[in-house]
Amino acid sequence: MSLILRILFVLAGAITALFVARDALNFTIIQTFVAILLVTAVLLAGSLWSLRRKTGVTRRT
Question: What is the distance between the alpha carbons of residues 39 and 4, in angstroms, rounded to a whole number?
Fold first, then answer.
């Protein structure tokens, strides 16, 4: 779990650095916000994937 969170924080730092200068006073706050958004997105994608697999939806062509 720690490894996953570290990867997400590194990714959040890279994304934040695209929009905010690293020496800005609020960089860490914005980085934390982006990390929370990434964690939320990963959890949402995982729950939707699980829901899709449980319902057994098949496509007919």
Answer: 10
